[in-house]
Amino acid sequence: MTVRDDNKDIDPKVLNEIVEAIRRMKFGEVVVTVYDSKVVQIEKKEKKRFA
């Protein structure tokens, strides 16, 4: 999968990392840091909930 905007490609490896980070968590957040139109960091904050 490739996303295009203004003729700039997003590396499929980066997209895969983002998607997998989301798929593996039940509760939490994924933060994608972009610098100069490039993804430079992916942070995953996962929460464990007990009921």
| Number of E strands | 4
Strand content: 35-45%
Give me the number of helical elements: 1
Read across the widest sheet, the strand sequence of neighbours is: 1-2
Number of domains: 1
- Topology as a string of helices (H) and strands (E): EEHEE
Which shape, going by the Cα principal axes?
elongated
Structural class: alpha+beta
Q: How would you describe what is shown here?
A:
The protein has about 50 residues and is α+β, with helices and mostly antiparallel strands. It has one domain. The protein is built from 1 helix and 4 strands, in the order ββαββ. The strands form 2 sheets. It has a two-stranded antiparallel sheet with strand order 1-2. A two-stranded antiparallel ribbon has the order 3-4. It is elongated, with a radius of gyration of 13 Å.
Short account of what is shown:
With 51 residues, this protein is α+β, with helices and mostly antiparallel strands.
